[in-house]
């Protein structure tokens, strides 16, 4: 395999050295040994381009049809399973849900992007990019230890006896995990260095091919990750005991740097945009040749750029798995035990925070689209203060002083509560009627009976009051359980606001403006707005009758508005109606 890659590399430079020479200064051809007799083996420029295109690894999965066949051959032998790198949350009964760290039995990998698998008694489709293959794995550690225990009866080592060079089994396992963490961390640093020096550095030399905005989109803040990871590795090296790895105390390193790991949030959020931008460029031949030349000059392994860029996304998810394994083989009496336990919780929280931020950023486009579908909108945009829908539903709003009830559709976002009126004929059209600032409101549970403030009899009611009592709003639900759900939702809204404040979660003005711009493009000025359903319907995914047709974003439920055919009858009635709401 190595000789084939080297042959491929030599052919590439010999035939297209003049082309790549326009991109950046190459090493002289004399640098590549044994060049004789290779020219005849090289095809045309179009052939080479097609070869690169066909071997391009999408979403970090190397190989093409040959590898798929190899995987399926292994599946036929019952020897392939996969480890989940991400949570896969799904509302589709034909998809397989799992959590990061779960082991999935791969049943069919014929399709490149979606595989069929089994977890316990559940089967379904799952995205291949969410997992990594584990072929011919060793038997579970519990069985291995039991095997050792059985061997001890025949004169072998017991579970508490030495395993390897004089270490008890559990201490040897801890040493192995420590060595694995240090090894993967050093490899990861080299990986980041190769991207920064092999790709970014060369791209910045070619201002005629790349703008700074393009580079920022493709590579995100990976240079910032590189600087941080170098510091983190130095901290690990100081705590690493080379002579006795099982005595290393690395848990404190994760605790000291847990806030710094949050910079991965920006990278993970940008990664889908990077894939889109890179996909556009890879349709142009000169960019295919350029990126391949970058890889070869840096002597990087044969993986496409999008595969390299996926690694930081996978890395931040791997830390909790490694720490969980380390904790498993750390005795409670070990000096590092409490720090490893705290580090595991800290890194789980980091991964959870990154996932939540990604979900929130994915949702702002849907919120902007929701606002654009509301008729007669007044005041500031919903995204100026809010980024998440907490709950929505129908409530009756009692108005003073007549005590008249009005049916309204309420949408509870973080920081504000928006209420709308439904169209009398087209019930999926909403008219803006107002909003309440939840930062200035207190929620009061109202008992059934006559309300003194409004002088009306109420049932399943609650009040929203300003601290001084100047502003009071009385809302009634149809059923007691609906009222309780709203009370929980108001409590959830306050908790989320507090959590965002503590974690520092914000949405930039650029992101808000871009979301509103995208929404305005979908509803051009002067054209009638498309009939849309309320925002909570966005949370319902379309059912996949067969194989899913698109790759979901990692660890995030894709929100999609169900499509439906508009009735011409209701459209005509709406045009002829003589009154306006």
UniProtKB/TrEMBL annotation:
SMART domains: PH, RhoGEF, SH3. It holds the Pfam family SH3_1. InterPro entries: DBL_dom_sf, DH_dom, GDS_CDC24_CS, PH-like_dom_sf, PH_domain, SH3-like_dom_sf, SH3_domain, SOS1_NGEF_PH. It comes from the Eukaryota. GO terms for biological process: intracellular signal transduction. Keywords: Cytoplasm, Guanine-nucleotide releasing factor, SH3 domain. Residues 77-136 form the SH3 domain. GO terms for cellular component: cytoplasm. It is found in: Cytoplasm. Signal peptide: none annotated. The keyword Zinc does not apply. Residues 388-495 form the PH domain. Residues 173-357 form the DH domain. One of its GO terms (molecular function) is guanyl-nucleotide exchange factor activity. This is Rho guanine nucleotide exchange factor 4-like.
């Amino acid at each position: 395999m190595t000789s084939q890659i080297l042959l491929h590399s030599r052919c590439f430079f010999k035939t297209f050295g003049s082309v790549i020479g326009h991109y950046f200064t190459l090493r002289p051809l004399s640098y590549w040994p044994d060049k004789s007799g290779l020219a005849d083996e090289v095809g045309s420029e179009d052939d080479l381009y097609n070869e690169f295109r066909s071997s391009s690894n999408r979403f970090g999965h190397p190989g093409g049809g040959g590898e798929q066949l190899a995987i399926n051959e292994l599946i036929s032998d019952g020897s392939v399973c996969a480890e989940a790198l991400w949570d896969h949350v799904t509302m589709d009964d034909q998809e397989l849900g799992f959590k990061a760290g779960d082991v999935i039995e791969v049943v069919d990998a014929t399709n490149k992007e979606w595989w069929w698998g089994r977890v316990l008694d559940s089967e379904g489709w799952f995205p291949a990019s969410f997992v990594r293959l584990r072929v011919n794995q060793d038997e579970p550690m519990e069985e291995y230890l039991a095997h050792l225990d059985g061997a001890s009866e025949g004169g072998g080592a017991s579970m508490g006896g030495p395993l390897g060079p004089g270490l008890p089994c559990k201490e040897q396992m801890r040493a192995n995990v420590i060595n694995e963490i240090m090894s993967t961390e050093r490899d990861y640093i080299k990986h980041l260095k190769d991207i920064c020096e092999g790709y970014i550095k060369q791209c910045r030399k070619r201002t005629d091919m790349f703008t700074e905005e393009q580079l920022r989109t493709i590579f995100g803040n990976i240079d910032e990750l590189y600087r941080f990871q170098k510091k983190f590795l130095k901290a690990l090296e100081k705590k690493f005991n080379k002579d006795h790895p099982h005595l290393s105390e690395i848990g404190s390193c994760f605790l000291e740097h847990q806030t710094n790991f949050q910079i991965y949030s920006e990278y993970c959020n940008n990664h889908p945009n990077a894939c889109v931008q890179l996909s556009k460029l890879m349709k142009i031949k000169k960019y295919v040749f350029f990126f391949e030349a970058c890889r070869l000059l840096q002597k990087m392994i044969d993986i496409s750029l999008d595969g390299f860029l996926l690694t930081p996304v996978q890395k931040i998810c791997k830390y909790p798995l490694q720490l969980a394994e380390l904790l498993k083989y750390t005795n409670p009496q070990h000096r590092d035990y409490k720090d490893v336990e705290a580090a595991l919780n800290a890194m789980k929280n980091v991964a959870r925070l990154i996932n939540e931020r990604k979900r929130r950023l994915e949702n702002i486009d849907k919120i902007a689209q929701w606002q654009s579908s509301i008729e007669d909108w007044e005041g500031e945009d919903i995204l100026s203060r809010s980024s998440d829908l907490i709950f929505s539903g129908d409530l009756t709003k009692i108005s003073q002083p007549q005590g008249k009830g009005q049916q309204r559709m309420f949408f509870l976002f973080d920081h504000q509560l928006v209420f709308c009126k439904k169209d009398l004929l087209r019930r999926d059209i909403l008219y803006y009627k107002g909003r309440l600032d939840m930062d200035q409101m207190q929620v009061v549970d109202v008992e059934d009976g006559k309300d003194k403030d409004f002088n009306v009899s109420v049932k399943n009611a609650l009040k929203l009051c300003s601290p001084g009592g100047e502003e009071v709003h009385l809302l009634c639900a149809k059923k007691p359980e609906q009222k309780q759900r709203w009370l929980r939702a108001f409590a959830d809204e306050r908790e989320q606001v507090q959590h965002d404040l503590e974690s520092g979660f914000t949405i930039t003005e650029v992101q808000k403006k871009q979301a509103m711009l995208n929404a305005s493009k979908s509803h051009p000025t002067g054209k009638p707005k498309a009939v849309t359903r309320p925002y909570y319907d966005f949370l319902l995914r379309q059912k996949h009758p067969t194989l899913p047709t698109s790759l979901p974003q990692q660890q995030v439920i894709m929100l999609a508005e169900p499509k439906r055919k508009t009735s011409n009858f209701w459209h005509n009635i709406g045009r002829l109606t003589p009154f306006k709401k």
